Amino acid sequence: MSTVLITGAARGLGLDFVKRFAARGDRVIACARDPEAAALRAVAGDVRRHALEVTDYGAVAALAKTLAGEAIDVLICNAGIAGREATVLGSIDPAVWRETFEVNTLAPLMMAQAFSGHVARSKGRKLVAISSRLGSIALADNGRYAYRASKAALNMEWKGLSLDLAGQGLICVVLHPGWVQTDMGGAAATLTIEQSVPAMVKMIDGLGAADNGRFLNYDGNELPW
Length: 225
Ligand SMILES: NC(=O)c1ccc[n+]([C@@H]2O[C@H](COP(=O)([O-])OP(=O)(O)OC[C@H]3O[C@@H](n4cnc5c(N)ncnc54)[C@H](OP(=O)(O)O)[C@@H]3O)[C@@H](O)[C@H]2O)c1
Description:
Radius of gyration: 16 Å
Strand order of the largest sheet: 3-2-1-4-5-6-7
Number of strands: 7
Mean pLDDT: 97
CATH superfamily: NAD(P)-binding Rossmann-like Domain
Shape: globular
CATH architecture: 3-Layer(aba) Sandwich
Bound molecules: NADP nicotinamide-adenine-dinucleotide phosphate
Largest sheet: 7 strands, parallel
């Protein structure tokens, strides 16, 4: 039995992570802006719900204090936004850009900073960020400036964490969930949530020290930075 903390836990991939871990008896710390959301409340099992806006760094620090002494085997920084308005040159909106970076890039790092101690005292010691293939510079395509850059920067952060925290035995990985049918992915996405999340859970289960600092697809294949 592991303890797993998940951000953005009230819908999409985050909610399904909660369901999968809870269904097999893991202890889940589900963090959501609306912890009373019906879909999250309906999940059976050992699920503790906490209100968390991930860009409220005072709240992040307060939650870390509330959970002081807990060992968190897996921290999953899942909350993210698409930043769709800043998609093409000519329509770049600095406010959207800043918000996208705040949520997708700075907030996960602040979570890692606040909770790395909780993860370090666990057996699992896994620090996972849900990134995106769109953050790969090697696979770059046009458009989606804010989103792509925010995930590329997230990848760089996690690479840094993998080096900084290796001495404490932490395993830091960034995962691409595939293109998945969620509110963000849309109905045309190639994967269902049921095809993506169980595969990621299996992959997270199998992570070992040799995986520290890797960028992985939901099916376990390596992605180029
Ligand atoms: N779906 C895909 O195809 C795809 C592909 C690549 C990567 N990803 C990544 O996978 C992760 C999950 O995406 P998804 O597809 O599940 O998207 P989603 O259905 O749009 O859900 C996004 C989640 O993030 C939460 N969130 C957004 N801003 C937040 C904030 N400031 N504080 C706290 N929570 C916040 C949302 O909470 P609320 O309910 O409160 O809004 C929601 O739970 C994201 O990091 C995304 O970039 C998704």
